[in-house]
Write a structure and sequence with these properties.
Helix content: 25-40%
Strand content: 25-35%
Number of helices: 8
Shape: flat
Radius of gyration: 19 Å
Largest sheet: 6 strands, mixed
Structural class: alpha/beta
């Protein structure tokens, strides 16, 4: 979105045009065998890759376990929706429901697991998740390169400076998918959703993410049985606790010259 701004600097004020990232609500609806669609969550997101976001969110919540569980994903065509609203409502028709999600209401761009207060609740909900994938320990140069390699692919961030990103790397360092969004957790949902909707088994790999490493990011990585999560910021206490309990590698403050391992030391070649 283009806006007019006053750019105030010591040398003076410049009146110019700037770009800001678009933030709009996305309502995710779910229909299962023998049931009509109903709202399960509304999240503030950056438009784009909406079907991936919906599929990834449902996978991370344990509602679906793969592409075979999904019949269709489509924008809603309800007659009472305005033209603008039609592209802010996505309905997933599921062939099978692994569990029935509780309606969450509104999830902001800062909150992914709204309502989960205890780590035990997360494990109760991860009905399709086994232990995280085990591969060769991640070499230091690969881990340190993750932020730079992500930044090179963040085209929307380059234009606006207002987006987070998540990427899925294979254990050998290949960057498979990268998605940007106003919310880190949405970006992670989009990455897993892309993998799922392309018919690729959601298993293993390393999640790289911008910003802090919150509980919701680790929860989604555990649900997808990832090898590790690597971020440029610090983790929270609950993120560390969950990663350690789940056997997930967790590294923060990743940069070209360092990273700090908080959980899963055996996942990194230290």
């Amino acid at each position: 979105m283009r806006v007019r701004v006053d750019d105030v600097r010591e040398a003076g004020t410049q009146h110019r045009e700037d770009r800001v990232v678009t933030e709009e609500p996305l309502e995710i609806r779910l229909a299962g065998p023998g049931s009509h669609s109903r709202q399960v969550v509304v999240t503030m997101r950056t438009p784009g890759h909406d079907f991936e976001l919906a599929a990834g969110w449902l996978f991370h919540e344990g509602v679906i376990s793969g592409l075979d569980d999904v019949a269709t994903v489509a924008y809603c065509t309800d007659a009472d929706l305005t033209e603008e609203e039609k592209f802010n409502v996505v309905t997933v028709n599921a062939r099978h429901l692994r569990r029935s999600p509780a309606a969450r209401g509104m999830a902001t761009s800062a909150c992914g697991v709204c309502g989960s207060a205890a780590i035990s609740d997360v494990f109760d909900h991860l009905t399709h998740a086994g232990a995280p994938s085990v591969g060769s320990p991640l070499e230091g140069p690969l881990v340190r390169a993750i932020p730079t390699r992500m930044r090179e692919r963040q085209s929307l961030f380059e234009r606006t400076g207002g987006l987070h990103a998540a990427a899925l790397f294979a254990d050998n360092g290949d960057l498979r998918w990268l998605r940007e969004d106003v919310g880190r957790h949405n970006a992670v949902d989009k990455v897993t959703g892309a993998q799922l909707l392309e018919g690729v088994e959601v298993l293993g790999g390393v999640i790289g993410t911008s910003g802090r490493l919150g509980f919701e990011i680790v929860q989604k990585a555990v649900a997808a049985r990832r090898t590790a999560v690597v971020g440029v910021g610090a983790p929270t206490s609950l993120a560390v606790e969950l990663a350690r309990k789940a056997g997930l590698g967790l590294a923060g403050f990743a940069s070209t010259d360092r990273f700090v391992v908080y959980a899963g030391n055996d996942r990194f070649a230290l």
